[in-house]
Amino acid sequence: MRVCGRLVLPRKQRSLDLTQVSEWDEGKVQRKDDYLAAEEPLEIRIGKHPLSVTMRTPGDDLELAAGFLLTEGLVQRREQIATLEHDPGDRENPGALRGNVVRVELAPDAMPDFDKMRRHFFAASSCGICGKASIDFVRARVMHPPNSDFRLDPEVLVKLPDELRASQAVFGRTGGLHAAALFDARGKLLVLREDIGRHNAVDKVIGWAILENRMPLKDVVMLVSGRGGFEIIQKAIVAGLPVVASVSAPSSLAVQLAREMNLTLIGFLRGRRFVVYAGDDRLAKSG
Hints:
Helix content: 10-25%
Shape: flat
CATH architecture of the largest domain: 3-Layer(aba) Sandwich
Low-confidence stretches: 6-12, 90-96, 118-126, 130-134
Largest sheet: 6 strands, mixed
CATH topology of the largest domain: Cytidine Deaminase, domain 2
Strand order of the largest sheet: 1-6-7-4-5-8
Number of helices: 8
Strand content: 25-35%
Structural class: alpha/beta
């Protein structure tokens, strides 16, 4: 059930491309089909105003746009998104931008002053904060410390990577996508999204939570398949997440922000081993 607004679903989008390659194996060469993770630009517009262009894997674009609006500080709640839909494209040029533009209409209290906006957002798939005026601009965003009462059993935590990998449908065929997933305190998978950009995958799962009216995510764990960078941590804090785990290393700035905001940050979550960089008080064995 939707609280407000309108969601218009697009045509089925393709997250995989098939291509011909030459494979060299022990001196033998053979031609074969190979799957690639699709990558296309997505433009997010507020009304007629271009806001952001991001390179992403097509699919779950409305969630990506909703998550971006929240984590970039343009909206604070679901009700501020009045309309969220794919732009049909240029009718005189069929196929132009078709499926690659999301148009958003915001409630009056959320409309930005475009005349005073110092910049538009541009995010490349490899770097979520490319184009921002400075890291200080990101850090200046209003963020509140996450739920200090949330507790997670380490025995639950170590099972999450296997659940993540088992649910990565596109990664299993391409090996080329990042994933982000949300789990409850018992380890139940709530949602998983894949994208060629790790910050896009995070925006997609947060966007899912917004559109499902599950914000803030105060009793939820987020697991990301790559490293835990600074922007992923700030997005998690904006969404209210108390715990973020990654299978790789966090950055120094991510650790600093997690400690400042009392977010539990876990890295190198592999097998039955992990490293806690911040907020170890939330990890407690049950019983």
